Amino acid sequence: GAGVSQTPSNKVTEKGKYVELRCDPISGHTALYWYRQSLGQGPEFLIYFQGTGAADDSGLPNDRFFAVRPEGSVSTLKIQRTERGDSAVYLCASSSLDGVKETQYFGPGTRLLVL
Amino acid sequence: AQKVTQAQTEISVVEKEDVTLDCVYETRDTTYYLFWYKQPPSGELVFLIRRNSFDEQNEISGRYSWNFQKSTSSFNFTITASQVVDSAVYFCALSAVTSGTYKYIFGTGTRLKVLA
After folding, report:
1. Closest approach of A102 to chain B, Cα-based (Å)
2. Which residues from chain B sit within 8 angstroms of residue A91, using beta carbons?
3. Which among A85, A83, A93, A81 has a CA at the least distance from the CA of A29?
4. Which stretches does DSSP call E strand in B2-102?
5. How many angstroms separate the first and last alpha carbons of chain A?
6. Given B37, B50, B103, which is nearest A56 (Cβ)?
7. Looking at chain A from residue 7 to 26, which residues have their Cβ under 8 Å from any Cβ of chain B?
8. How far apart are CA B17 and CA B44, in angstroms?
9. Which residues of chain A neighbour B27 with C-beta distances below 8 Å?
10. Alpha-carbon distance A2 to B110, whole Å?
11. pLDDT < 50: residue spans in chain A
12. A2 to chain B nearest CA, in Å?
């Protein structure tokens, strides 16, 4: 596909469950970012991958959150022991190069609802 | 600290009116980039423009124009002759080299409603 894709588009889970959110970046993009957007707020940074490695994970709220990008393309955001406060839209973005000037292109997001 | 402020939470205009969305930013970096994104009801963030800190020239793209003023740390966005399809939430974002990361700092967004 031409753009960033994310699956699932919606995920409903129960408190305490484990969830995985997937991001497929634009082909050839080396940089990948995860953001979280709560209702009425702007996206907030979670983690940034440069290739396969997490170059900056300072935005992950706690150790229940983890992300991987094993082959430098698709990334999975993993949330353990979900809490109601984790409910939000999780956005993935990619850019062709690493750098402050690079434009990030966003996917449609995964809307997570924790009951 | 880096920060982006979009003081206008929601704006309503009647179709064909001009509207300006304000964005004020804070950063200590001398090299930084500013962005505007549109988020329609579908939810996907759509890139509109990128501007670097060394280029204060205003830009126009069709009905859209951007005014970047370093003296007031502002990067305002104007839509001329607004249309119903412009209804969306608009986000301003900042990217600056701090600790080697390239994350975006977003404002809280301005919801624009264009009424027919």
Report:
1. 8
2. 45
3. A93
4. 3-5, 10-14, 19-21, 24-26, 32-39, 46-52, 59-61, 64-69, 74-79, 88-96
5. 33
6. B103
7. none
8. 25
9. none
10. 28
11. none
12. 14
Among candidate residues A93, A89, A94, A95, the one with its CA nearest the CA of residue A113: A89
pLDDT along chain B (116 residues), means of 10: 94 98 94 94 92 88 94 96 97 82 91 97
For residue B3, which amino acid is it? K
Per-residue DSSP letter, B57: -
Encoded amino acid at B102, one letter = Y
Amino acid at A83: E
CA distance A71 to B112: 40
pLDDT of residue B100: 60
